[in-house]
Amino acid sequence: MLRIPCPFCGPRDHAEFSYEGDATVAYPPLDASREDWFEAVFLRANPCGAHREMWHHVQGCRAFVVVERDTLTHEIKGARLAHRPTAEAIQ
Amino acid sequence: MQRYNALSVLWGGLTGQRHWKKVWGEAEPKQHYDVVIVGGGGHGLATAYYLAKEHGLRRVAVLEKGWLGGGNAGRNTTIIRSNYMIEGNTEFYEHSLKLWENLSHELNFNVMFSQRSHLTLVFTPSQRDAMARRYNIMRLNGIDGEFWNQDRLRHEVPHLNFDGGRLPILGAYVQPRAGTARHDAVNWGYARAATALGVDILQNCEVTGFIRKAGELVGVETSRGEILADKIGLAVAGHTSVLAHKAGLGKLPLETHKLQAYVSEPVKPLIDQVIVFGGFGHFYISQSDKGGLVYGGDLDTYNSYAQKGNLPVYADVAAAAMQIFPCLGRVKLLRQWAGVMDMSMDGSPFITKTHIPNLYLNAGWCYGGFKATPGSGHTFAHTIANDEPHWANRLLTLERYREGRLIDESGHGPVPKLQ
Questions:
Q1: What share of chain B is helix, strand, coil (3-state, %, to 5)?
Q2: Has residue B286 got a pLDDT over 90?
Q3: Residue B223 and residue B205: Cα distance in Å, rounded?
Q4: Is the CB of residue A75 less than 8 Å away from at least one CB of chain B?
Q5: What is the pTM (predicted TM-score) of this model?
Q6: Largest CB tally within 10 Å, which of A70, B101, B236, B335?
Q7: pLDDT of residue B343
Q8: Cβ contact (<8 Å) for B414 and A13?
Q9: Of the candidates A19, A42, A72, which has its C-beta nearest B417's C-beta?
Q10: Which pLDDT score, from 0 to 100, does residue B215 have?
Q11: Residue A78: in which H helix or E strand, if any?
Q12: ipTM of the complex
């Protein structure tokens, strides 16, 4: 079991969250080129080691949380809210 | 190669079993090979075997960072089937199943391929209709498939929980030619047959980098020194992205996830088929020849290179098991393990050339690599030797993502954890 430090709820079991994948992927504007969309939708760095990823606290506060986690050791280095203004406001 | 036959077994039995020889030899790395295959799992060994057997290449090496079959080839639930619906998958998996049907003879090694049939249970009329469509498409493609109604299913699998679960079991869609095989025997059989044809198998030989000369890829750096090669094939499953970055392939349509599997204590013969429960849960089970119940369920659903699973998934799998087989409630779990899967963006694999001229890629196997072993090796060898795909893997390309021609069997979209 991973224990994710949710900024609102504190440390919670990962079973309360839904995994949403690589958080470094930024979707391009709607009128961006086909190639940009192909990269954003399909291509992933998939590192063995440090990974920034999105978790949705779907059975908790429902916030989207960006977690820094190691994909080999599962060590979690930190977590923040994905929504920047809210993340700054609660700090 | 010492050939096995009934007479040699009889002779060995009478002479104290002293006739057994080492099945494959230890090789020292040579300076240069025609083809180097990275990854000594089933797919890599099969590729090397078919390169030597069908394409006459004699200077072939398989590089394995650990020991043969120590990765996913030794971590799966050994299910073999070809009940696929989408063009690209249908012909590939049926090609593979046909190779399975003759594999023990081909390799002169008993891979214990048992065509015990594969049952997909259906619980609702809509599920039954969707499966009817799939199995009818299979039949049009020449793949065997049939429907067992509840009466037939009660006769064949009497201890299923027909009416006591959340939904009644209405019947099952069945592929009679599907089944299981002994996974270690597949690796050993391919390794033995490949070495007999002159293939070098290099264990404890981890690829740490790639050698380039004038921009061309000319070999690999390994923990056992530099090895030059005219062509390099990658068959490293969950670690594909790691090597792809080193080789200069860049990002791929892959995420690495872990999948657990479980074996119970041995029990008397209970389950004669491979039985799959999908829809409002996910569970698949068969019984090994030793009597252990081999079963599994969903991924752990987050990126991971750790070959260890976690408990919440096991709780889900156990709950699913109790839904359909309440009689398993008192059976003890003997072993549990996890393997790292190369989950692709559409749930289907790629066996393909890459934009680097002499680098070939075999990856994206998701849950389904074991059943693909002979087909994957056969078509990957063809692709490497001829520099163009075999008919059966012509659609399993990387370009399909860019072109929007996905082979999305489950219809989940580009979400690896759901494939």
A1: 35, 25, 40
A2: yes
A3: 5
A4: no
A5: 0.96
A6: B236
A7: 97
A8: no
A9: A19
A10: 86
A11: strand A76-81
A12: 0.95
Q: Is the per-residue pLDDT at B262 higher than 80?
A: yes
List, in sequence order, every residue forming a beta bridge with A19; answer none if it has no partner: A55
Q: Give mean pLDDT, residues A60-87.
A: 95
At B314, the pLDDT band (50, 70, 90 cuts) reads very high
What is the full DSSP assignment across B271-286?
--SEEEE-SSS-EEEE
- β-bridge pairing B216-222 and B283-287: unpaired
Other residues' Cβ atoms within 10 Å of the Cβ of residue B155:
9
* Residue contact A45–B312, C-beta within 8 A: no
Q: How far is CA B319 from CA B162, B271, B344, in A?
A: 16, 18, 27
pLDDT at B329 over 90: yes
- Indicate the number of domains in chain A: 1
Across the interface, whether the CB atoms of A1 and B242 are under 8 A apart is answered: no
Neighbouring CB atoms inside 10 A of B106's CB total 17
Closest to B79 measured CA to CA, from B284, B271, B268, B297: B284
Taking contacts as CB-CB distances below 8 angstroms, the residues of chain B near A44 are 241, 251-255
Confidence of residue B23 (pLDDT cuts 50, 70, 90): confident
- What angle, 0 to 180 degrees and rounded to 10, lies between the N-to-C axes of helices B369-386 and B183-196? 20
Minimum-distance CB partner of B305 among A22, A44, A48: A48
Q: Which residues form the domain of A39?
A: 3-89
User: How far apart are alpha carbons B302 and A66 in whole angstroms?
Assistant: 13
For β-strands B79-80 and B179-180, DSSP reports them as antiparallel
Which residues from chain A sit within 8 angstroms of residue B350, using beta carbons? none
Q: CATH number, domain at A60? A: 3.30.2270.10
- b/e A19-49 (16+ beta carbons within 10 angstroms → b): bbbbbeeeeeeeeeeeeeeebebbbbbbbbe
Residue B372 has pLDDT above 80, yes or no: yes
Please state the rounded mean pLDDT for residues B260-282.
93
What is the per-residue pLDDT across B25-54, written as a single tens digit (0 to 9) for each?
Answer: 789 999 999 999 999 999 999 999 999 999
Residue of A35, A42, A47 with shortest CB distance to B345? A42
B190-216 pLDDT tens trace: 999 999 999 999 999 999 999 999 989
What is the rounded CA–CA span in Å between residue B233 and residue B224?
18
Residue-wise pLDDT tens digits, A22-71:
999 999 999 999 999 999 999 999 999 999 999 999 999 999 999 999 99
Which residues numbered 13-72 in A keep a CB inside 8 Å of some CB on B?
Answer: 13-15, 19, 21-22, 34-35, 38-39, 41-48, 51, 53, 69, 71-72
- Rounded Cα gap, residues B289 and B370, in angstroms: 18
Assess B417–A contact: CB distance below 8 Å, yes or no: yes
Optimal mutation site among B258, B305, B307, interface A, most CBs of chain A within 10 A: B305
- pLDDT (0 to 100) of residue B245: 96
| CA–CA gap between residue B208 and residue B40 (Å, rounded) | 15
End-to-end CA distance of chain A: 27
Q: Do B253 and A43 touch (CB under 8 A)?
A: yes
